[in-house]
Amino acid sequence: MDLAMIHMWSIWHHRNLVVFEGVRKDPQSAAHMALRYLEEYQAAQSDGRDKEAIAIAGNTRPTKGTKTAVL
Questions:
Q1: What pLDDT is recorded for position 71?
Q2: What distance in Å separates the CA atoms of residue 18 and residue 16, rounded to the nearest whole number?
Q3: Tens digits of per-residue pLDDT, 45-70?
Q4: Which domain of life is it from (predicted)?
Q5: Nearest CA to 59 among 71, 49, 47?
Q6: Alpha carbon of 11 to those of 16, 18, 31, 47: distances in Å?
């Protein structure tokens, strides 16, 4: 996921908070939110791949919700 796209989304989200809810936040909170969102996204993506790789390498059953490749 592109960091620039996440920053644009975060700015748009903070703009909507001001326009529709009257909530004003520090501009740095938009940047912090974008970075945190990207970190969470990357962690979630790597979690699934790590579990799948361990299941395939260890010849064990994957945990529920983990997809495995048919070899």
A1: 46
A2: 5
A3: 887 665 655 555 555 555 565 555 54
A4: Eukaryota
A5: 71
A6: 9, 11, 8, 28
Please give the Cα distance from 9 to 21 (Å, whole number).
17
| Domain boundaries along the sequence of the chain | 3-57
CA-based max dimension of the chain = 55
What is the distance between the alpha carbons of residues 58 and 6, in angstroms, rounded to a whole number? 36
CA atoms within 13 A on the CB side of 5: 3
Other C-beta atoms lying within 10 Å of the C-beta of residue 35: 13
Q: DSSP of 42-62, one letter per residue?
A: HHHHHHHHHHHHHHHHTT-PP
Neighbours of 55 (CB within 10 A): 16
